[in-house]
Design brief:
Helices cover 32% and strands 16% of the residues. The chain is α/β, with parallel strands linked by helices. It folds into two domains: 6-161 and 193-217, Rossmann fold; 168-191 and 222-273 and 288-335, no CATH class. The longest helix is centred in the middle third of the chain and has 15 residues, at 133-147. Bound molecules: NADP nicotinamide-adenine-dinucleotide phosphate. NADP nicotinamide-adenine-dinucleotide phosphate binds at residues 11-17, 35-39, 53-55, 72-73, 97, 99, 156, 158-159, 166.
Length: 337
């Protein structure tokens, strides 16, 4: 069944946006994108492509009508207000892609949408500052609630799948597909993600139905072992994890998250990848099998263009996250058994 309608996507040429535009087109929507025209400008010649800058000139949005606006590129509340001023009342419904990083306290698992949000310690900075990502996204949510009576706020966990520019999920897919022992996080640590294609399909549905409310968006949390073993099984290699103790990691300078992506050893962050997804599940978020996400991510990473890799490296050490292959092998050999 197609849902149709006119959609404006703020973004649409990178990762989640690419999957969202594809999903909207599949469902028969008339799509307009709004970007600066820098990222993948060759994409989607079949849609109306408007250009401007959310930090400056959004005059391209002062004409046109859209049933649903999908906002994937807001990182500062001023961007929301600028967009709202330009759009006036020429949209029925606004869908903001926020983040699970908005929560004030993720020390414990099971954080749901009613939990308190992070707040800035000082004044709102004039422009986006990466270390204030969570509180600024929380202010974006507040601005959307103030300016758009009909709206949905979606807070994704780690987004996974083809075209991921961060390589946080991809790094594990690549590494655990290679034979030999590998350094891993503790196998019982919880991990969660959302496949970008599942998220995109769901966003289309939420917009079509004008579903009100706020939703975490993630798969059910699983122990890290499930993620890593599934990857090894998919690749047909033995699963040989090597878990370093806290002391060994400290001595070797192996960092949680940067070197072991998706794993947080900081006790105040341990619930980040184990949030409550009851509401999203009830509202129709469907997770494809992990094996499919793994297979498609691996197929994409093996063929991705040089613009999607770390420019200074060649495969398989061109990942933007995780230990290099050489360092992983060296550490795994030293601490195995
Ligand atoms: N990646 C994750 O794991 C993750 C997790 C949770 C939440 N999220 C959220 O998911 C959303 C989508 O992330 P993404 O990585 O797919 O894309 P993104 O980097 O947030 O957005 C990129 C898109 O927005 C456009 N854009 C960027 N700055 C702009 C500006 N100043 N004015 C107009 N257009 C601008 C880009 O095109 P141009 O460069 O051509 O302008 C591109 O199409 C974000 O809101 C992010 O916070 C991501």
């Amino acid at each position: 069944m197609t849902t149709g309608g006119r959609a404006l996507v703020l973004g649409g040429t990178k990762f989640l946006g690419v999957h969202l535009v594809e999903a909207l087109l599949r469902e028969g929507w008339d799509v307009t994108t709004f970007t600066r025209g820098r990222t993948n400008p060759h994409l989607f010649p079949q849609v109306t492509r408007l250009h401007g800058d959310r930090d400056d000139d959004v005059s391209a949005l002062t004409a046109g009508e859209w049933d649903v606006v999908y906002d994937l590129s807001a990182y500062h509340p001023a961007q929301i207000h600028r967009t709202a001023d330009a759009l006036q009342d020429r949209t029925d419904h606004y869908v903001l892609v926020s983040t699970i990083s908005v929560y004030a306290d993720v020390a414990e698992p099971g954080v749901d949408e009613d939990a308190p949000l992070a707040a800035l310690d000082g004044p709102v900075p004039e422009t986006f500052e990466p270390e204030l990502y969570g509180p600024l996204k929380a202010l974006c949510e507040q601005a959307v609630a103030e300016r758009f009576a009909s709206h949905t706020i979606v807070r994704p966990s780690i987004i996974a799948g083809p075209h991921d520019p961060t390589d946080r999920f991809t790094a594990w897919v690549v590494r655990m597909s290679e034979p030999g022992p590998h350094v891993t996080p503790p196998l019982d640590a919880p991990v969660q993600w959302v496949d970008a294609r599942d998220l995109a399909d769901w966003l289309v549905r939420l917009g079509a139905d004008r579903t009100p409310g706020t939703f975490n968006a993630a798969t059910p949390a699983v122990p890290f072992e499930v993620l890593l073993r599934t990857i090894a099984d998919e690749a047909g290699v033995a699963f040989e994890p090597v878990v370093l103790s806290d002391e060994q990691r400290a001595a070797e300078g192996v960092r949680a998250w940067a070197d072991l992506p998706l794993w947080l050893d900081d006790p105040t962050m341990r619930g980040l990848l184990d949030v409550d997804i009851t509401r999203a599940t009830a509202a129709g978020l469907h997770a494809r099998p992990l094996s499919e996400t793994v297979r498609d991510t691996l197929a994409w990473v093996r063929t991705r263009g040089s613009d999607e890799r770390r420019p200074d490296e060649q495969p398989p050490d061109d990942l933007r996250a995780g230990l290099t292959r050489t360092r992983d092998a060296e550490l795994a050999a030293r601490y195995d058994g």
